[in-house]
Amino acid sequence: MIVGCPPPALCALMSLTLHILLCMPLQGSLPTVSLLVSDLDNTLWDWFHAWYASFDALLEGLVRELGVGREQLEGEIRTVHQLRGTSEYSWLLYELPSVADFCGDKDPFVIFREVLHKQNSARLHETRLYEGVLETLRAVKSAGVPIVAYTEAQSYWTKWRITKLGLDGIIDALYSSSDHDAPKDISPAEKRFDPAADMSLKRTDHRHVHGGIIKPSPVILQDILSQFDVPLDQVLYIGDSLMKDVAMGQAVGVMDAHAEYGVAIEKPAYDQLRRVSHWTQKDIESERLAAVETTPKPTYVMTKGFYEILQQFNFRAQSGRSQRRGKETTFGGMEKAIDVQQHFNDLSWRIRALWLTALTFVLGTTFLAYGDSKPVTMGFLGDKPPSLVIPALGLFLWAAFRFVDAAWYHRLLVGSVIEGIRLEKVLTLGGTEISLTKAIGDNSPLSTVLGVMHSKHKLNAFYLLGGLPLFVTIAFLLSR
Ligand SMILES: [Mg+2]
Questions:
Q1: CA-to-CA distance for 3 and 308, rounded, in angstroms?
Q2: Ligand 1 centre and the CA of 116: distance in Å?
Q3: From the CA of 130, how far away is ligand 1's center (Å)?
Q4: Peptide linkage before 216 cis (omega within 30 of 0)
Q5: What is the whole-number distance in angstroms between the Cα of residue 407 and the centre of ligand 1?
Q6: pLDDT recorded at residue 1
Q7: How far is the CA of 142 from the centre of ligand 1 (A)?
Q8: Which CATH class is domain 35-318?
Q9: In angstroms, what is the span from residue 166 Cα to ligand 1's centroid?
């Protein structure tokens, strides 16, 4: 019997596995990593290559169909990208002047269907993980080490890549910017080429980072790390940008690794990205200057591939004792957060009960005084019942109660709820499912014919209804 050769992909996988195993030094001598935080673009996959292939297909098609110069189109595209803050703007065709002139009132997505199809095909075929990424992430995960991804890229295409590349669930948590805006009259769900494809991640916990804060600011990474009870010297951050990723890791004080294999800055096609990117000229210049002047020196360097992290670090879940200690601390914080929530909630209801008591007193006194008095002259109001003074003063009381409740204790209550949700996430990521505060928050909104009422709307409704008897009484007395 003739035995055939294994398929090439299997051969490559076997050789890679062998390579990883043979090159792996003794684990005891390596720094321990209990939390892996990774950049995505050009660290796990070659974003630049896929972007260039898909963008070039779009640009070539538009130049051919529109009959305008490449340079002119690049200028128009750059203006839109800068306006929208991304170089992967899904609705580009709706905002290019040359396309608008060409299409008139026709839909550019219909007119340029073929061009868009080529762009999407190129993106689909050229988006690939670097060699060994999947196997490496699985090895890290099987060691019980959480994997977190932090990218500045916007939401939709990041989720698309994670889903397409089979990383949903392998990455435990993704932190990304929210999606870019769409033009007012565009429905993203209808216009996406594959509207049936649900891009929400099923197993990876996806969270949006605050807008306006970008790498190398340490703020977001510090915020991410606060969700995990892992000492900084057991956290590894890896990324392809020295100025952004390595500098940020060093600023926060975690172990930093440079994904040198993913550096795309010297490739000729990088100039294409510069010509149409959302980066400002200032960004580009500062990057050029920084590259020669203040480039941080990475502590660890991966030259060949992502899989080298298995050779340079010992991935190990936190010891049971430190995990237990961390969980106990978080549980303690959680209990305290719930106590604080109860405290502020209780205070708020006492204030509201006091207001209802004060309202009853004001109304009762007003009606008693109204029956026993004759009108007196009140300046420009003319002759009015003197009892008008009582509900008028009640208005100040009403405003004071509302101020203390809404501007004071309700805000403190919201703060304690946010902290409760954060601690629940920490416990959930650590394997303990708890979602009391989240479940309360999810069930709190009330659907009405006027829209969804959240807690602040309910608070306003309470004081509006609670103030109504006062307004009616004042209006009645003014009419006498
Ligand atoms: Mg990157």
A1: 34
A2: 25
A3: 13
A4: yes
A5: 42
A6: 39
A7: 25
A8: alpha beta
A9: 19
pLDDT at residue 106, as a whole number: 92
Q: Cβ neighbours of residue 267 under 8 Å, at least 6 residues apart?
A: 48
pLDDT score, position 22: 47
CA distances (Å), origin 242, targets 225, 231, 434: 20, 23, 38
Tell me the whole-structure pTM to 2 decimals: 0.64
pLDDT tens-digit series, residues 403-445: 999 998 888 988 888 888 877 776 766 666 777 877 888 888 8
CA of 390 to the centre of ligand 1 (A): 67
- CA–centroid distance, 12 to ligand 1, in Å, is 26
Instruction: Compute, in angstroms, the gap from residue 260 CA to the centroid of ligand 1.
Output: 11
The domain segmentation of the chain, as residue ranges, is 35-318, 322-478
Q: What is the spatial distance between Cα 262 and Cα 72, in angstroms, rounded to a whole number?
A: 31
Q: In this structure, are residues 416 and 340 in contact, taking their beta carbons and an 8 Å threshold?
A: yes
To the nearest whole number, what is the mean pLDDT of the chain? Answer: 84
Give the position of tokens 């409704």: 461
pLDDT for 97: 95
Residue 13 contacts residue 6 (beta carbons within 8 Å): no
- Beta 35-38 vs 173-176: how paired, if at all? unpaired
DSSP state of 235: E
**For the chain, what percentages of helix, strand and coil (3-state, to nearest 5) are there?**
60, 10, 30
Give distance in angstroms: CA of 444 to centre of ligand 1.
39
Cα–ligand 1 centroid distance for 382 (angstroms)? 74
Neighbour-count burial of 417, counting CB atoms closer than 10 A to its CB (0-12 exposed, 13-18 middle, 19+ buried): buried
CA of 301 from ligand 1 middle (Å) equals: 15
Query: Ligand 1 mean position to 150 CA, how many Å?
Result: 9
- Cα–Cα nearest to 363, from 312, 398, 329: 398
- The Å distance, Cα 353 to ligand 1 centre, comes to 55
Rounded distance from Cα 225 to ligand 1 centre (Å): 19
Calculate how far, in angstroms, residue 154's C-alpha sits from the geometric centre of ligand 1: 13
Q: Pick the range with the lowest mean pLDDT from 262-271, 296-305, 378-387, 406-415.
A: 262-271
Q: How far apart are CA 280 and CA 274, in angstroms?
A: 9
Contact, 203 vs 169, CB < 8 A?
Answer: yes
Residue 253 CA, ligand 1 centroid: distance in Å: 19
Q: Rounded distance, CA 57 to CA 123, Å?
A: 9
Q: Does pLDDT of 269 surpass 60?
A: yes
